[in-house]
Amino acid sequence: MARRWTNDLTLSDVTPKQAYLNRRQLIGAAGAMSLIGGAAAAATDETLEPNTFEEITSYNNFYEFGTGKTDPADHAHQLTIAPWSIRIDGLVDTPGDYAADDIIAQMDIEERIYRLRCVEAWSMVIPWQGFELADLLALAGPKPEARFVEFQTLLRPEEMPGQKFPILDWPYIEGLRIDEAMHPLTIMATGIYDEPMPKQNGAPMRLVVPWKYGFKSIKSIVRITLTDTQPRTTWNKAAAAEYGFYANVNPNVSHPRWRQDTERRVGGGLFSSRIDTLMFNGYDEVAGLYDGMDLEQNF
Amino acid sequence: MTAAQRVNVWVRKVPSWAVYILGAMIPVWYFWLAVSGQMGVEPINALERALGLLAMQTLVVVLAVTPLRRWTGISLVSHRRALGLLAFFYVCCHLAVWLLLDVQDPGRAWADIVKRPYITIGMAGFVLLLPLAATSNDRALRKLGPVRWRRVHTLTYVICVLGAVHYVMVQKVWEIEPLVYLALVLALVATRLPRLRRRAAA
Lengths: 299, 202
Ligand code: HEM
Prior knowledge:
The structure holds two protein chains of two kinds. Chain A is of the alpha+beta class. Chain A contains eight helices and twelve strands. Chain B is mainly alpha-helical. Chain B has one domain. Chain B is 84% helix and 0% strand. Chain B starts with a helix and ends with a helix. The complex binds protoporphyrin IX containing FE. Protoporphyrin IX containing FE is lined by residues 45, 48-49, 52-53, 55-56, 59, 91, 94-95, 98, 113, 119, 122-123, 125-126, 159, 162-163, 166-167, 170 of chain B.
């Protein structure tokens, strides 16, 4: 099980001494082919260093706690995360409630240092701990007819003050095609920097799909449903022209609000330059999932 | 003396140079907060937004000067020009942060201005502020004469509405705060409608 995808980039790689090694590994992670050109190489130089724990935990979009970037850090402490279970249902052999602790105990927890690209054109590099989603789905045994996976965030307005306002159609729903869900890059993250997942980042367990805009990586998941129809996802319902179902990071498809060809890496301060955004956020190994698809139409 | 008169005496004692200096120091203060890491880990957007909000709030105060005098007798008229010019200054700072620190590229900035409606509307507000800023001095007032000068400055209402609509559109969802500002601006403009209509008829 697990470790199907080798990311040999670990925290020790970020020390300056290891800069050379670091770069080689990133090129591996980002897909060597795309990085031969000078511009792309320059872009990867920017991607070396993970953001600090403080940056990752103080600048979040988690509208369940408010729409401001610091609202999640200010309000998420109200959330109780124990006990926690995830209902896995729909087109599976063994539907049921799976306790978060039991899931984590069974899984092979690995470290994945991923770029995270928000649709708002900012980005971070985050050292996640977690396991492959495919391994969690395997516990419930997806039936062959399952074509999509729908995810749902906790709905608990008493502890999630943002849910008291109908700014989005709560609870938050996201979805993936089954092949995207089974891809070894797709993980359920359970921690950051070897700390249990902070509440503002989606405790106890959240999805991370590094080649898609951040809003796809749904937080604090309570339900996973395998279906044969494409899920109606929250942001897509709110503004279909702005947020597609696929939401793959794509510098060539502009968004009505934010240009997507460049991004700003959080942590660079007031004078930080924009860097080029890479196709699939640099994770070219997923390109095969979309062979023959018009990614401008299916944005 | 009524309470309002007492306030007015106090307001008139504040020299306008003090209003200009204090007002101009707010963006400097924000800039320092952003540089020194006290505006969070992504200071460019934080500064951009802080300045936009400051501009919006100042425009609302400018709009409120006349109704405030009519309803409470408190008069900020002696500082209206300073407040208006400060609002213009704040919008300039907001625009400068957007252009120089956020977008960082004139070609891309232009593309955003023509393509993204919330930017187009904000930019329209800025452009309409230019003639007002240029005529906010005694010489222009004398040259235009009070009637024409006042006609030019009715643009203030349009600018405030554009600013508030821009604020609503900047958000990804329907947020309460920008809608409150929009409602406030529309209500303040509505208090002028009878007078505007009378003037148009005259
Ligand atoms: C009358 C003039 C203007 C007013 C009153 C105004 C006001 C505002 C306000 C209140 C905000 C939101 C602050 C917040 O969320 O706390 C904002 C955001 C913003 N404004 Fe303006 N603005 C004006 C003109 C402009 C112009 C000329 C531009 C650029 C050409 C511009 C670009 C932006 C941008 C990029 C944002 C932030 C968007 C984001 O965070 O994604 N604004 N403005």
